[in-house]
Every structure is written in C-alpha cells, then in structure tokens.
Amino acid sequence: MTATAAPAVLDRDGLDALVSALAAQGRTVVAPTVRDGAIVLAELDSADLLPFGWGAELDAGRYRLVRRQDGAAFAHSAGPQSWKTWLHPQRERLWSADRTSEGGLEFTPGIREAPSYAFLGVRPCDLRAIAIQDRVLTAGRYTDGGYGARRERALLIAAECTEPGATCFCVSTGGGPAADPGYDLALTEVIDADGHRFLVRVGSEEGARLLQQVPHRVADPVTQDAARSSVNAARDRMGRSLPPVDVRTLLGASPEAVRWDDVAERCLTCGNCTMVCPTCFCTTTEEVTDLTGDHTERWQRWDSCFDLDFSYLHGGPVRTSGRSRYRQWLTHKLSTWHDQFGTSGCVGCGRCIAWCPAGIDITEEVAALNDEHRAHHGTDEER
Fold first, then answer.
1. DSSP 240-293
2. How confident is the model at residue 383 (pLDDT cuts 50, 70, 90)?
3. Separation CA 199–CA 205 (nearest Å)
4. Closest CA to 4 of 187, 218, 198, 203
5. Where exactly are the structural domains of the chain?
6. What is the per-residue pLDDT across 268-322, written as a single tens digit (0 to 9) for each?
7. Is residue 278 within 8 Å of residue 129, measured between CB atoms?
8. Sequence-ordered list of residues with C-beta below 8 angstroms from that of 141, at least 6 positions apart, any chain
C-alpha cells in the first residue's frame, strides 16, 4: 500500500488497534480526552479514553462540555490546548554548564533524543497551524533545533471536522473542515444506520505501513459519500467569519484606527489569546544558577506580545499601552505575518475568542476596523 492507496474503513475495534499499534512502535500517543471540565489533549494508552459522546458549546469568553447522543469521538470544537504544547513546549532547557575542578566550564546540551509522538485527532485547523509553525521555526535562516527534532519524529493522524463550533471561522481564513495534505492518516467519523466507523485516507508511506498493521476494510461508496457530505456540510455551519476583504491590507492601513481604543478598554492584556493560539511562537530566554555558582542553566519559555516587558529596550518598553500591544498582536497575526512567512498567522480555530476572559472576538474587531475604514475611505479592502 502506498500514500495513494484507496480509502479504508476502521470500526471501533480498529481504532483501538490503531492506538495499540502506535504504542507498540514506542510512540507516545497524544489525543483529546475529557478532563477538568474540558476536552484536553493528553497522553493516552487506549482509544477508550477518547471523548466518545462529548461535545462542546462555545461563545466569546465561554466554553462548556455537553453530552452528545451519537457517541462521536471527534465531534467537538478545539479545546484550550493545541499541539504546539508538545512540539514547541512552554518551557525547555537549552543547555546547562558546570564549573570543573580545573576551573573551566563543561557544557551539556539540553535537547537530547526527541520523543516519538503520534498525534491522534488533529483537527484541520491545527494541521494547518503545524504547517505554519514548520515554516516559522524550521524553514528560515535560524531554526529551532528542538522543534525540528520533535516535528521530524511526529506522526500526524488528522480528524476531519464534521461539527464546527460557534467560534470557528476557518473557512474565511482560506482553510476548511477538510484535512489539507501534511497528515500521515486522515480520519472522517461517520455515524449512521450502518454503524459507527471511520473513513481513513493515507497521506504518507509511514501512514500506509501503520494502516496495514490494524484491521480495516476497503471503503464502500456509502461510507465515502457520508463522510464527504458531513465535511461539506460543516463548511456551511461556521459560527463566525472574517469579513470578505483583504485583511492583510486593511490591518496595514489601520494603525491609527479609533477602534484600537475601544478594544483597549476591554482587553486585560493577560496574553490568553497568545497562549491558546496554535501558531503564536514567541519565546524569551532566562538563566538560572544554583547557590554555589557552579551550575547554570539556560531555559527557553513562551512569551507574549501582551507582556509589558516583551518590547523592552534599553530605557523601557516600546509598547506601554494595552492599545499598542493588542494592535501589535492582531496586525502581526493577520498582516505582517505575510511579510515574514508568506502566509497569515491565523487558521480560524477560534480559541482566542472562546478563551478570552473579556470575550473579545477577533472577527468582530476586524469587521469594526473595516467599517471604520469604509467610513473614512468609502470602499472595502477587496479580497
């Protein structure tokens, strides 16, 4: 079987066997599960721990688990975490140094052998986010070696979206509920009169070898049609959308917009949006020593453009106001990201909307900026 193999079908037993096969390869399986009142990503050793029968209700600043009647495992919106928690961890030791008895220094790299991850249930928006972080962290002149090592060994099993949430807007960012290339396997969950099953598409040779190790059957036309129809229907049920304008140009033309003052009155500058965003990548470094001064370590940790010290230069921070920091985040995400990386930095997952304690809605802010631009210039920024 090759990466162009015909689609297959797994049943519930086949999904169990898939997790077992991944574990037998020595992989750490990370997948959605229910914990602490949310659907979170965690290490699993059994498919039984997937969130069968659970969904989520979302709105700006609101998230709530709800029971589903159909027993679906992947019919839920994005939770508070993304896969960058494992590929680009919140805190990572870069190196350590020890003073030797001869008075010299001995350095030890902090990054040793990377873990071998299998990500099960990667939503299409998150699959696109991983592709964006690949470009940001490994495709430039200066690469993140830790990210690159973890990404190289990670196997991606996508779960196509059939149940978008009220804060989802991936279609208006150029994506959609279907999985783009970049996966090893892609699952589409189907539940109908013929049972509960998963259509499987192969995206790589490694995915093909994995599928061969688990019980499956060749996909029948009914299952393929049902899967395609569910994904297509999801495109029309997005809870939100960005305005149909050239957002990159709009943001670039709006540095002095009055709307920034409005959002600054509501924004807590807490940085939640950057923490839950699957593409935000900013970090800082810090060094710590023991009390003797004979041992020191350098750590890399997540940082946020909402942090007052993020723009600190000699003499003080450049962006002292909440207005300037929110403007920096949104303008970089939707406009100047193109200049750096050739793409938008937003995949429309809606996490920043749901997990903002003030309920600030990125789509609402862009629409308001567009309305203000039209009022002053008389036309939309056409997409």
1. ----SB-HHHHHHT-TT-THHHHHHHH-----HHHHH-SS---EEEEEEE-TTS
2. very low
3. 18
4. 203
5. 8-235, 247-377
6. 999 999 999 999 999 999 999 999 989 999 999 999 999 999 998 888 899 999 9
7. yes
8. none
